[in-house]
Design brief:
Oligomer: single chain
Strand content: under 5%
Shape: globular
Largest sheet: none
Mean pLDDT: 77
Structural class: mainly alpha
CATH topology: Rhopdopsin 7-helix transmembrane proteins
Helix content: over 70%
Order of helices and strands: HHHHHHHHHH
CATH superfamily: Rhodopsin 7-helix transmembrane proteins
């Protein structure tokens, strides 16, 4: 009996360790992605505020636009991969998780999220910057993005709009739909857990990821999918700050709140104040 209990305890420990290893791999990639994401826009934005000079070169504009849409698309795919990881961990038996989410599958999901977007965004950036623009590119925005740039074009942008919304469909809406379906099944599986403590533990493993998804997709959806007009530029640029600066800033806070020591320190700080 002791031998069987030890084996069961060891198998549960190794399963939890495997889950933590996979989750930390996704979190490291998400953290690196957020650092790159804020580095694309924030330094130039701060220089413009401090020097009161918002000018940027043509190549600098193209580079900023390319990396902005590239990293945004990668984050959508990465969040979908993390939702798939949570789905397998909660909805499938433990032994299935070790077989399905192997090291090779995890690497393919991470590498695929970075590689598959590159040629598509190269094509979109080239298509945007081959358009004829007006004499002065005076953009009422904090950084260069596709919808505001298309407003400045002096030619028909129909095919640019088609490509933009096709990319949004493939790299944003489809991953978001996958995330929603995954969480519907996750919630259904959690509600079947008999103990309250078990349901709480299962949901706590998803709460951070769900918060990040809500914050990122909520602001990005308003900016990209609503009808564009020149009168809506000012609200749009402030909403764009949410998913380019606010969301990457809050992501470490959201994931850190799952740590017991961090929660205790935060409670002490709030209690003393």
């Amino acid at each position: 009996m002791v031998i069987h209990e030890d084996k069961g305890r060891d198998s549960r420990a190794s399963y939890r360790g495997l889950q933590l290893t996979k989750r930390s791999a996704f979190l490291r990639n998400l953290s690196f992605l957020e650092i790159c994401y804020t580095s694309v826009t924030l330094p130039k934005m701060l220089v413009g505020f401090l020097m009161e000079d918002g000018r940027i070169s043509f190549l600098g504009c193209a580079a900023q636009l390319y990396f902005l849409v590239l990293l945004g698309s990668i984050e959508c795919l990465l969040l979908a991969s993390m939702a798939y990881d949570r789905y397998i961990a909660i909805c499938d038996p433990p032994l299935h998780y070790t077989l399905i989410m192997s090291r090779g599958v995890c690497i393919r999901l991470l590498v695929g999220s970075w590689v598959v977007v590159v040629p598509v965004q190269v094509g979109q950036t080239y298509q945007v910057f081959t358009l004829p623009f007006c004499a002065s590119l005076d953009l009422r925005h904090f950084f260069w993005d596709v919808p505001p740039l298309l407003e400045l074009a002096c030619a028909d942008t129909f095919w640019n709009q088609v490509m933009l919304y096709t990319i949004i469909l493939v790299f944003a809406i489809l991953p978001f739909s996958f995330i929603v379906i995954s969480y519907m099944k996750i919630i259904r599986a959690i509600l079947r857990i008999p103990s309250v403590l078990g349901r709480h533990k299962a949901f706590s493993t998803c709460s951070s990821h769900l918060g990040v998804v809500t914050l990122f997709y909520g602001s990005a959806t308003v900016v990209y999918l609503k009808r564009q007009s020149r009168d809506s530029v000012d609200p749009d640029k402030y909403l764009a700050l949410v998913y380019t600066i606010v969301t990457p800033m809050f992501n470490p806070v959201i994931y850190s709140l799952r740590n017991k020591e961090v929660r205790i320190a935060l409670k002490r700080l709030l209690w003393t104040k």
